[in-house]
Amino acid sequence: MTFDDYARWAASVPVPDDGHDGVLYLALALTGEAGEVCEVLKKSLRPGRSLDTERVADELGDVLWSWVRLCRALDIDPADVLAQSRAKIDEKRAR
User: Fold this and answer.
1) Staple partner for 20: which of 3, 24, 28, 66, CB 3.0–4.6 Å?
2) What is the pTM for the complete model shown?
3) What is the 8-class DSSP label of residue 74?
4) By three-state DSSP, how is residue 7 classified?
5) Domains delineated in the chain
6) Helices (DSSP H) in 1-95: which residue ranges?
7) Among residues 32, 50, 29, which one has the least CA distance to residue 41?
8) Contact 50, 43 (CB under 8 A)
C-alpha cells in the first residue's frame, strides 16, 4: 500500500462530530495515540521487560491514522507535509 492509498482510505473513515469539523477530536486522538506509543516504550524500561515492537507498530498505525485525518480536516495534503518536512530536515543537515 502506498502512502497516498492509505491517506485516501483514512479519509473514508468517519470521525465523531465535535462541532469543529473533527479537528478537536483528531488533535486529541493524535496526542492520545502518541502517548500510548510512549507508554509502551516506558513499560519496556521496567526490569525484566522487553520492548513489544508489535504493540509499538500498532500504536504508530493509530498515530498515522490520526495524523492523516487531522491533515485532511485542516485541508492540508499529507504528502505536502512529508515533502516540507524532508526539505526542512535536509536543510538543517546541510548546515
Assistant:
1) 24
2) 0.87
3) T
4) helix
5) 3-94 (1.10.287.1080)
6) 3-11, 23-43, 53-73, 78-94
7) 50
8) no
The whole-angstrom distance between residue 36's C-alpha and the CA centroid of its chain comes to: 12
Among 18-22, 43-47, 74-78, the minimum mean pLDDT is found in 18-22
Q: Are the beta carbons of 11 and 40 closer than 8 angstroms?
A: no
Give the C-alpha separation, 67 to 81, whole Å. Answer: 11
pLDDT digits (tens, 9 = 90+) for 84-94: 999 999 999 99
Residues constituting the chain:
95
CA distances from 93 to 8, 63, 80, 82, 83 (A): 32, 26, 20, 16, 15
- Number of Cβ within 10 Å of residue 78's Cβ equals 20
The tens digit of pLDDT for each residue in 43-73 reads 999 999 999 999 999 999 999 999 999 999 9
